[in-house]
Amino acid sequence: MIRNMFQKAMNGKKPPNEWTRAYSTSIFKRGDRKKAENYRGISVLSTLGRIYSRVVRNKLEEAIEGKIGEDQSCIDHIYTVEQLLEKKRAKKQRYTLSGH
């Protein structure tokens, strides 16, 4: 059942809201509690949400492997993925996170 839901979501169906909802808060690290830099952010996801996020990340990494260099910034990576998707859309080609 869960595998079926994952496959549908990976093929374009909207994943359940519970998988995409995150609750964010900050946790005190050390030092002066009045300084924002002494806190770190944390997001709490559902277990299935964490698993789904990992699956999506792995599929994205597979899809872009060899297409971008390790010395590029996160913004460069996002731009590259956007460009790849835009080319697929322009050619009216189907695209999924499965890399097919």
Explain what the structure shows:
This protein has helices at residues 2-10, 17-20, 47-64, 74-90; strands at 22-28, 39-45. The longest helix has 18 residues, at 47-64. 48% of the residues lie in helices and 14% in strands. Strands 1-2 form a two-stranded antiparallel sheet. The chain is flat, with a radius of gyration of 18 Å. The mean pLDDT is 79. The protein has 100 residues and is an alpha+beta fold. The protein has one domain (2-90).
Largest sheet properties: 2 strands, antiparallel
CA distance, first residue to last residue? 23 Å
Any idea how many domains?
A: 1
Q: Outline the low-pLDDT stretches.
A: none
Helical stretch count?
Answer: 4
Strand-residue fraction?
5-15%
List the helices and strands and how they pair.
Elements: H1 2-10, H2 17-20, E1 22-28, E2 39-45, H3 47-64, H4 74-90
Antiparallel strand pairs: 1-2
What descriptive keywords fit this protein?
100 residues; alpha+beta; two-stranded antiparallel sheet; 4 helices; 14% strand
Outline:
The chain has four helices and two strands. It is an alpha+beta fold and 100 residues long. It has one domain (2-90).
